[in-house]
Amino acid sequence: MQHEHAHEVGTDRAVRLAAFGGPEHLAVERVPTPQAGPGEIRVRVTAAGLNPMDWFMTADAQSAARFGLSLPSGFGTDFAGVVDQVGAGAVGYAAGDRVYGAALSRALADHVVVRADGGIATGIAHHTPDGVDDRTAATLAIAGSTAAAALAVLRLGPQDTVLIGGAGGGVGVFAVQLARIAGARVIGTGSPATAEYLRSLGAEPVAYGAGLADRVRALAVAPVTAALDLHGTDTVAAARELRVPDGRLCTIAAVVEGVQAANGAQAGPAALEEIARLAAGGLLRVPIAATFPLREVRAAVELQAGRHVRGKVVVDL
Ligand SMILES: NC(=O)c1ccc[n+]([C@@H]2O[C@H](COP(=O)([O-])OP(=O)(O)OC[C@H]3O[C@@H](n4cnc5c(N)ncnc54)[C@H](OP(=O)(O)O)[C@@H]3O)[C@@H](O)[C@H]2O)c1
Is residue 135 domain-shared with residue 147, that is, in the same domain? Predict the structure, then answer.
């Protein structure tokens, strides 16, 4: 199938880095269109969501090596699109299927080849449910899995009041809504300007920064019983001041002794597919802070890397 943007037959646009470093190293180049081998499917990518991991991984050679990346490197991990080639023996997918998933540091391209039964390193795809558009689907894999893994650690229920630090970001929007669906009361941290937005997600807003524990106390809601730190260590520290036991703390963004760390890889496919179903049913929404055409990938990454986005940044292909 000829992609509408592929002006030269047999070539694709793909974001490449000739050197590891900041967004100034990102370039849209022409590469040969990849072919699906045995056990693989090829996806015509229509949208790719950005995550902090995209630029953490490619920021320097040492970080890149930890993730097995080498030069010239691709960029971006979350994608959504349509299957347009199915390799021999790749079961479960047909040309025309809408899919979303993750392909480590190579999602920002007209096509991505993933294993039909793969993981994030080889690439993984899930069927996109009706009712979920491609931009939304392109935000689900990394942030949704991570939020699900964190929620699995905390096992929230209606008796809980959970403090979520960094509640309005890419992972936060999933974590807040999943916590609400579990019946918990949610206090979410953000900058003062994000208060109304956090409320719209279902969280009671509180400003992050020095004095967080005092501000949470002053909200005078029920005592905080659990906490999730999506930004650094401040939320965990405040929760400890509020006497939340370490067993009810979770972090995804730092190593804190005695606190369980959650990682998206811990969430099974069923947890992600449940999030996609919730989105399809209108029970969970993913705010898209901004979308960019591929040629503006540097601006997209700069916005994401500013760390003040509300929800997700998506690149259209
Ligand atoms: N372990 C894993 O598997 C995994 C997976 C995904 C992400 N992560 C990590 O988790 C973190 C969050 O990821 P993300 O995608 O949600 O990032 P993100 O979208 O960039 O987060 C942006 C959010 O962070 C908030 N924020 C900024 N400064 C803050 C502060 N001092 N305290 C609390 N919140 C603050 C912002 O709020 P305002 O706009 O209101 O300032 C904004 O809502 C990143 O460090 C990422 O690398 C880990």
Answer: no
